[in-house]
Amino acid sequence: TAPSEDDGEGAAAKGHAALLKFASSSSKAAGTLSEEVTLSEELEGIIRGLAENGAAACYPWDALRILLAAKLEKVLADFWREAPDLKLREGETFGAAVEPLTRSLLEPRREGAPWTTQRLCELLAEPRSGYKSTRKYIYALQRAILITTTEEALAPRPLALTPRSYFEGAAGAEMEGRAEGTAVGAADAEGKVALDSEQGESTPAGRKRKLPEELANGVVEE
User: Fold this and answer.
1) Chunked mean pLDDT (size 10), the chain, 222 residues
2) Measuring CA to CA, how many Å separate 193 from each of 97, 98, 189, 203, 210?
């Protein structure tokens, strides 16, 4: 049977609780490779889920970055054991080369998960899907980790819109002014017609002017 929605919510709740417990009990220091650290299935599931959907905002960043740092150190320890091809400075250990990455993840000034979190989790969930060289893999991790800009910072800001009431008010005032102008114009026209009628200067259209009786009969008295 297919898992129900309640099962999915229950798994998410278990993963969330496991993450908080792991973060609170973790005392790892940046730069100390944790090859022997064991991550529970719930914790591994969080990384796989983020590789698929990138929904890092679903988890508290302060806890999530501790998990990512631990997973990163574990995967790199495995890589280094199988392909130690990263050139180190004289006297430098591989742990010291990894330390800038974990330090960047754990940097207190980071305000949230970077927008590259999904790519980082893809690399951590399937580390050997595209890389066999420790050197190339660590460079790919650097490109994902050293980004500090968050998804929220990249989200487009809404434009400042003029309130609808402003347009309604302006349009209402304009229409009212037009109506008043029309009424005034009509009143002026009516007044002019009335005035013309009183002065005998206007004749309704379609009617002939009535001539005086003597002119109508064709006789003009001297």
Assistant:
1) 58 88 73 66 96 95 95 94 93 93 92 95 95 95 95 74 52 53 52 48 50 53 48
2) 99, 97, 6, 10, 19
